[in-house]
Design brief:
By secondary structure, this protein is an alpha+beta fold. It is built from 13 helices and 18 strands. 33% of the residues lie in helices and 20% in strands. Strand 13, helix 6 and strand 14 form a beta-alpha-beta unit. Belongs to the peptidase M14 family. GO terms for molecular function: metallocarboxypeptidase activity; zinc ion binding.
């Protein structure tokens, strides 16, 4: 029997940039009663071989693996005997979620507040819009929420176009980016890196300092479709650096930011509409029933050295037929090459893991400048903690995830020579895996902002 049969579920509620929530009456993968189990497998080949056998027999599905553990999904009918086998083999495990379907429904939606009124702008719109955003609309709308840092230097405001108490569709996010370009046109430009496999735009929002030869910073999210929180968090950082620009210090205004909230738009849309935990893009392979390439392993840095994944198109970690085989990674890599001059900081946000990772993933050797990478990350941890969140683990990708090849940050560090390069695995929501409940979107997004501000501040001081 195939793992996770597709059935018609009741409509789920998601957020949109309109006054009313939208519902989808569509096929969603049925995760009702499915267990998420973490199997502790550090340095134990027999455990990994047993899990591999379960995968080959189509009894479980691997969602994430690291050096210390592997997270698997288990159908309700298989839970008892798999737990029994683990216990008979003295394999340590922990049940993270007993009903993944229930967790998805809890995550699914809180209706947003009403949209901002439509306003026509003229030649002085940029400064007027700044006033409207920071003062006028706030006073007219008492529902706008504020969150202050403990040091009192910044205030976080919900924009009524996009709020941070629910998740939005890809098209709604793009409407918000277009709104930012319209209102803050003096500093905001939307650049097109290319198109996804299904033809969706891969947009890079540039926040310009207006200074020649400015230091550049890259921030991205949404490399894997199921990482909803990463795109929301990156969009929050984008919002703060534009709409709340004055609060974040003069140093932030001397930098050109290049922000890509959706590296994998097709995966995000499919995850929203069909399968909450879909990670890969949506490439269709001829004469094969499996779809997709894991875009985080399609980069030309020791690509395909993990043979077990390279030879299995159906694997969650399939790296593609060759490096940069996918339009998404080609578009982003070519954009980065064109804009590499003065690029000093590269931060890719993903989920989950509560870790700030630096290169490399293909080897246990660390970069020569690892001391400064760690020091900047420690500074970020201090800011995260002051904002009320627990600290992130700081490690190399190899130390945290184990052998990991063809990944983005190794290519950026090795090929482009960018100094400060990080893969940030955002916080877990009470160990709820990729599912971050709506009430935790904003705190997690504030983590991302603190990390960006701290690392950029350190790198440009």
């Amino acid at each position: 029997m195939g793992f996770l049969a597709v059935v018609l579920l009741p409509a789920l509620v998601f957020c949109t940039a309109t006054a009313s929530p939208i519902t989808y009456n569509i096929n969603l993968s049925n995760y009702d009663g499915v267990h998420l189990i973490r199997v502790f497998s550090k340095f134990d080949g027999s455990v990994n071989r047993f899990i591999d056998k379960l995968v080959k027999d189509n009894e479980v599905s691997i969602i994430r693996s690291s050096l210390e553990s592997t997270d698997i999904l288990v159908e309700p009918g298989n839970v008892k005997w798999i737990k029994r086998d683990f216990e008979n083999k003295s394999i340590r495990y922990k049940i993270i979620i007993e009903d993944v379907g229930a967790a998805i429904r809890k995550e699914a939606g809180i209706a947003p507040q009403p949209q901002r009124p439509n306003v026509k702008w003229d030649w002085w719109s940029s400064s007027w819009a700044q006033w409207w955003s920071n003062f006028g609309w706030k006073e007219q709308n008492p529902k706008m929420m504020e969150f202050s840092e403990q040091d009192g230097h910044a205030t976080y405001r919900h924009s009524d176009f996009i709020t941070w108490d629910c998740y939005y569709d890809f098209d709604d996010f793009n409407k918000y980016y277009n709104y930012l370009r319209e209102v803050y046109g003096s500093i905001v430009t939307i650049l097109l890196a290319g198109y996804s496999y299904e033809g969706r735009p891969i947009s890079i929002i540039k926040i310009s300092s207006g200074e020649p030869n400015a230091t550049k910073v890259w921030i991205d999210g949404g490399t894997q479709g199921n990482e909803w929180i990463s795109s929301s968090a990156v969009t929050f950082v984008l919002k703060e650096l534009i709409e709340n620009r004055q609060a974040h210090g003069i140093n932030m205004k001397k930098i050109d930011f290049y922000i890509a909230p959706f590296i994998n738009p097709d995966g995000y849309v499919y995850s929203r509409q069909s399968d909450r935990f879909w990670a890969k893009n949506r490439k269709k392979f001829e004469d094969d029933q499996c779809f997709g390439v894991n875009l985080n392993h399609n980069w030309n840095s020791h690509w395909g050295e993990e043979k077990v994944y390279r030879e299995n198109i159906c694997s969650w970690k399939y790296p593609g037929p060759f490096p940069f085989s996918e339009p998404e990674t080609r578009a982003v890599s070519e954009f980065l090459v064109r804009h590499a001059k003065n690029l000093k900081v590269f931060i890719s946000f993903q989920a989950y893991g509560h870790t700030m990772e630096y290169p490399f993933g293909y080897t246990d050797e660390e970069p020569k400048d690892v001391g400064r990478l760690k020091e900047a990350a420690e500074l970020a941890n201090g800011a995260v903690e002051r904002a009320g969140s627990p600290k992130y683990k700081i490690s190399s990708m190899f130390e945290n995830d184990g052998y990991s090849t063809g990944n983005m940050i190794d290519w950026v560090k090795g090929e482009l020579g960018i100094k400060y390069v990080y893969n940030v695995q955002l916080r877990n929501d009470d160990q709820q895996w990729f599912i971050t409940r709506p009430e935790n979107i904003l705190p997690t997004s504030i983590d991302a902002l603190q990390i960006v501000k701290s690392i950029v501040g350190y790198a440009t001081k």
